[in-house]
Every structure is written in C-alpha cells, then in structure tokens.
Amino acid sequence: WPQVGVNGMVEDNDIAVGWALKNISSYGGDPKRLIVLGHSSGGHVGSLMLARRAFGRPSDLPLPTGESTKDDWTCADIFGFIGLAGVYHLNDHFLGHLHSKGFDRAFVRTVFGGTQALRDLLSPLSMMAENPSISTAFPPTLLVHCTGDKI
Question: Which of 40, 72, 83, 103 ranks highest by number of CB atoms within 10 Å?
Fold first, then answer.
C-alpha cells in the first residue's frame, strides 16, 4: 500500500476489470454478469474506478507492456457493484479516524492528499455531487455497512 497512491490502485483495478471482461468467457464466465466487489479500501477503490469510468476515461492511462485488456469498457459492461464497509468520501473525519487507529497523519495526507480539494478528486461521493450524471451511469449498486461502524 505505501508504494503506490490511490490513483495507482484504481489503475490496477481498471486494468484487471478490462482483462476480466476480455477473458472471462475462456474460463466459462459470462462477461455480461461481471460484478465488482470491494471491502473497506477495496470498496473505495472500486467505486472510484467506476466513477471515473462513468465520467469518461483518460486516454493516456498507461498499460503494462504486453498486457491484454478490454480497454474500452464502460460502466454499462458491469452487471453490478457491491461495496462492503467502504469509504466513499475522504473527509477530515475519516483522516482523524485513521490517525486514531495509529496511522501517521503525514503518511495519510501523502496517500490521500494534503487538502480537501485533492481528497475530493479521490472521493466518489464528491465526484457524484459535482457531476450528477456520474451516478446515473453507475451499474446497479449495493452498499453494505455494519451498524457499529463509526464513520
């Protein structure tokens, strides 16, 4: 986790989804029934990946040499998204929670951005609030959290 930031994590997942869509049939799967599921930070990364796809993918996203993916996939290619106890808005309350669990504040700000404006670029809810069309392009979504969650 410390070796890459959120953007690297999203990029890796984006490539993996493209690969799965292109290759799932050869493993007996149905590309029309691919579901993205993420728990905790995986819920954040998965939802951010889908929000960026709904907004439009940057054309300059580098792919690993020799990697074969379905690079032109859209949210319409995804059957559904399940987020389990994910974080969808990187606000000061969330950063305080991480600090209370032992994460160094400087490290957290390096990974997630030093200002709220930078964190909003990594927050699916902020993206949807600013661009409501993103939420309409999302696949069917189920967000699950525990009643004991504090954030």
Answer: 83
